[in-house]
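Most newcomers find our protein records easier to grasp once they have seen one. Each record describes a single protein and holds just a pair of labelled lines. A learned vocabulary of local backbone shapes supplies the integers on the structure line. Nothing more is needed to start thinking about how sequence determines fold. The record below serves as our worked example for the rest of this section.
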Amino acid sequence: MIAIIDYGAGNLRNVKHALDLLELKSFITDNPDDLSEAKGMILPGVGAFGHAMERLQEKGFDQKIINETATGKPLLGICLGMQLLFDKSYEHGEHDGLGLISGEIVRFETDLKVPHMGWNQLVVSEYYKDHSITQGIQNDNYVYFVHSYFAKADDEQDVLFSTDYGQRFTSAVMKENVMGMQFHPEKSSKVGMQLLKNFGEMVTREDISGN
């Protein structure tokens, strides 16, 4: 069972619908205690980083997410949810994140139109080309983005996918059981659905192992 975290800043219904289509059992919750019962977690998000972190803290989700991931429980951050995994963001000031991935969130520095909105291509990291999370995914597959800020990971080995938009940026990250996608897999057709399926299988494996 996958918990979709409702902290007032997420695109919850589309994510739930995508998981339902994949026959992955999930539930939406605004109660941090429910995360203990879940076998995996999804942290969606739209809006501003600082406000989202405030909502996580107000509801008590921030420390609970950190504690649950420390047990090995799989976590997927989507769009703003991926950015919240990092140490800090410089969106409208400086704000601390969850600190699960080392790095920071910065604004695009490009002559291209910002926000970066629409379909763009993935480049699979050499570190993950044979990993189960990239099963069925190829270089140059297209996914759907909407964002003005992006992640700069400190460790290249945490970069799952990268994408070009006037500059190369990190479009997905992975560090052990913690992963994030800057794009919206639930809006990214077959490629996005494949990635959600792969995440679901990661959760299933953790379930079988007893974690």
Q: What stands out?
A: The CA atoms of residues 60 and 191 lie 33 Å apart. The chain has five helices and 14 strands.
